[in-house]
Amino acid sequence: MLGGASTPCITGWSCYNATISSPDVIENNSGKKAVLAIRRTNVTPVRGLVWMIGGHAGQVFWDRGTTLARTWEDRMVAAGYDLVQYRHTGRGWPWAMLGNRQGFIRTACRPATAIRWTHDNWLRGGEFMILGSSQGSAAVGWAMAMYGLDSIVDRAVYISGPPMSDLIGACLDTGDLALAHPGESGLVDEPDGYDSNGPCTLRTDTPDNRNWWLHNSVETADDTILPGGATIGNYRYSGTRVGFIIGDKDSIRIRLHAQKLIDGFAAAGQPTTVMHIPGMGHPITQSQAGLDALFNFLTAP
Fold this sequence. Notes:
Largest sheet: 9 strands, mixed
Helix content: 25-40%
């Protein structure tokens, strides 16, 4: 549900408070609050709309106020596209109430709901496209795999991730150690109701934890592990162009997790366009070459 104007806002944009509620997520009112920012093009006809989510828990707008990203937005608007940025307030979109094990596949309904609402209410014409950076690309991954958004999304771009493609590898110091998240394990524990010292942080290797992480990974999403769950992740999108933008200077961990999902798409028969950007680190908002690649992918006929 969209509310009144949200302030402060980005200059040249309109920001609105939003309340996002999911019947499958146990939450208090603070967990439902988000902000949607929109900037409309004056070009006619409108070529489409691009929906964007930033990294970490999505508490900051995708462009992070950087000059390069703001210039990229100017180019997109001049090319005929409306832009929407999403941010979740409080602890962010993955956060679950303490003591409630819910998982990414359930908390991802928050950005997924915002994506569908934006399509249904703000798309004026042309293509509907979504993108996410870092953990935001994981949000895009779960939204596409678990919430049927391939039926409305024309192009989806995974930038610098997703870093949660393989949660077993992320959480356990076994197997390929390069997949592990030594300093960010709390991000995996948050949707499982932990504020600190959850099983990922503590590297608690049990069959139950492995099974839980398997079902909640972007690459192998499946909610049948949950009460009432009946959705097995879909990774074949007949009407969606899928792109990956990966910085060659990003960490080996991020690059390996991205490759996991790329391989998963290949196994499902989903074509992907993978763009490796020389000199780009983790944030695309600091890479002109990365932003140029993103512009070209979104605007190509």
